[in-house]
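re the bet — no i am not wrong, look at it urself. input seq straight from the record:
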Amino acid sequence: MEKPGISDLPYFLVGAVVALQEELGKAADYFIRKGEEMTPEGRKRLQAAKKGLVSKSDDFSVIVSRTIKRVLENAGLVTKADIEGIVKRINELEKKKWGQVLQ
């Protein structure tokens, strides 16, 4: 296997986010099971903790997504948004051109 390069960084980051979300979900489920064995007060605290973990996981995903976007932009790689913008502009130009041809 080749040594990872800069082009592998987006895949690494996405993989790290997915793995972290999975592990956070497993941990939250474990805590809930333990909380169910406790008193009603303990269950309430663990439910609140799970919500906090899920919220932090979502926040982390947003941060990683922004980081990946910046890495792609700084590396000069084309993003999905770039391609969508180009396709939209081409469609607009084609409509404009065909409108002039048909007149």
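see?? DSSP finds three helices and no strands in the chain. told u. also The chain has one domain: 6-78. so pay up
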